[in-house]
Amino acid sequence: MKATELRVNNLVLTGGNEQYVVSIDIDDPQDPRINDCQEIAYQPIPLTEEWLVRFGYSDTNDEMYNGNIWMLGDDIHVSPVVSSTGIHGLLIYGYLKYFEDVYVHQLQNLYHALTGEELTIK
């Protein structure tokens, strides 16, 4: 994970603990900092169904999409592409994006880009 992927208020892991990003310093490309620490100290949080629930998504079954649709209010609909090792893609409003892995900060950034609001734990 690179500091340039993050925004303030993203959730990340450090030392096995969840932490919000409160500062990002990329002025020195040789030493990018997250929360005044080297970016190597931080890891992304894998996106799981538990995280979708924590963000307030509700699981519904929609025959039209032939699977589970996670809904946040009436606005953002996400259908995770799931394998035995976790979520590896997101189907958002009919747009399918495959990732090697999907992380909490990516969903937070996408939600912010679409709504202009922060996606927070409920």
Topology:
Layout: E1 11-14, E2 17-20, E3 24-25, E4 33-34, E5 37-38, H1 49-54, E6 58-62, E7 67-72, E8 76-83, E9 86-92, E10 95-98, H2 104-115
Overall description:
The protein is an alpha+beta fold and 122 residues long. The chain has helices spanning 49-54, 104-115, and strands at residues 11-14, 17-20, 24-25, 33-34, 37-38, 58-62, 67-72, 76-83, 86-92, 95-98. It has two domains: 3-41, no CATH class; 49-115, Copper Amine Oxidase, Chain A, domain 1 (2-Layer Sandwich), CATH 3.30.457. The longest helix is centred in the last third of the chain and has 12 residues, at 104-115. The protein is globular, with a radius of gyration of 15 Å.
> How many domain units?
2
Question: Mind telling me the CATH class of the largest domain?
Answer: Alpha Beta
Helix content: 10-25%
N-to-C SSE series? EEEEEHEEEEEH
Overall structural class, as computed from helix and strand content, comes to alpha+beta
Strand content: 35-45%
Query: What is the number of helical segments per DSSP (H or I, 4+ residues)?
Result: 2
Overall, the morphology is: globular
User: How are the strands ordered across the major sheet?
Assistant: 6-7-8-9-10
**E-strand count:** 10
TL;DR?
The protein is built from 2 helices and 10 strands; from the N terminus they run βββββαβββββα. By secondary structure, the chain is an alpha+beta fold.
Q: Which characteristics define this entry?
A:
122 residues, alpha+beta, Copper Amine Oxidase, Chain A, domain 1, 2 domains, five-stranded antiparallel beta sheet, 10 strands, globular
